[in-house]
Amino acid sequence: MKAQFSADPFALMMNPQAVLQAMERSERLQHLERHICHPLDKPMIPHALSALEVYDHEIDDDADETGDDFDDGLGE
Question: Is residue 53 assigned to a domain?
Fold first, then answer.
């Protein structure tokens, strides 16, 4: 006998064990090709900072050291 599952995901959360059992019995899921992808495991490729990036970092560091806040010129 096949159990009918609701299309409502919240109703499915009330009986997760039945959902897991249905997934284990599913022929369609068993025939899927499985691939393990680890795109975030690759190390970031370092790049040299451009002159503009170096200048930007220097400005940020200087503002941090002096405690200057951004002045939008509105006088508020």
Answer: yes
Tell me the per-residue pLDDT of 27-38, one tens digit each, with 9 for 90 and over.
998 898 888 877
Do residues 21 and 12 lie in contact, with contact meaning Cβ atoms separated by under 8 Å? no
Listing DSSP states for 18-66 in one string gives HHHHHHHH-HHHHTS------GGGSPP---PPPHHHHHHHHHHHHHHHH
Total tally of structural domains belonging to the chain: 1
Instruction: HSE, CB side, 13 Å, CA atoms: give it for residue 6.
Output: 9
Query: What's the pLDDT score for residue 38?
Result: 76
Question: Domain range for residue 55?
Answer: 11-64
Surface-to-core class of residue 19, CB atoms within 10 Å of its CB (0-12 exposed, 13-18 middle, 19+ buried): middle
Residue with tokens 């975030």: 40
